[in-house]
Specification:
Elements (H helix, E strand, L loop, with lengths): L1 H20 L14 E4 L2 E5 L3 E6 L5 E8 L7 E8 L4 E5 L20 E8 L2 E8 L2
Parallel strand pairs: 1-8
Antiparallel strand pairs: 2-3, 3-6, 4-5, 4-7, 7-8
Length: about 130
């Protein structure tokens, strides 16, 4: 039984690595069509019930996904679409949901990290912040 669980976990990890290792062919940029990781210039504040996200970059972010407590098999996410350069976006904490549809409740869960994933003109954008 333990061997079967380890095999299943190993298969899951391999799938995650495969899935995250593929490049997005829709991303524009120079040099052979492969995308690079872009570190986003962002500010994220938590008010206790809302997250305030500021795009401090000089370019828009596309296909934006925001995540609270992001991990291998956990976390709550919210798809936003696009955020223009300089735009401030406010999202209620309960707008975020996990893969089972459970909403993030800021009164019962503490946000420990916040991650932004998006498309940029030169590659896949990533931002991550942690709170104590």
């Amino acid at each position: 039984m333990l061997r079967k669980r380890l095999f299943t976990l190993g298969g899951l990890i391999a799938l995650v690595i495969l899935a995250t290792g593929t490049s997005d062919t829709n991303t524009s940029g120079s040099g052979g069509g492969t995308s690079q990781e872009v570190h986003l210039n962002a500010t994220v504040n938590f008010t206790g019930t809302q997250f305030v996200i500021q795009n401090n970059d000089s370019f828009a972010w596309g296909n934006v996904e925001l995540a609270i407590n992001f991990g291998l098999m956990s976390g709550y996410s919210l798809k936003v679409g696009q955020m223009r350069a300089g735009e401030r976006y406010t999202a209620g904490a309960m707008q975020f949901a996990n893969s089972d549809g459970e909403r993030f409740n800021p009164f019962t869960h503490k946000p420990q990290n916040f991650t932004i994933f998006c498309d940029t003109p030169t590659g896949r954008g990533v931002y991550s912040a942690t709170w104590n």
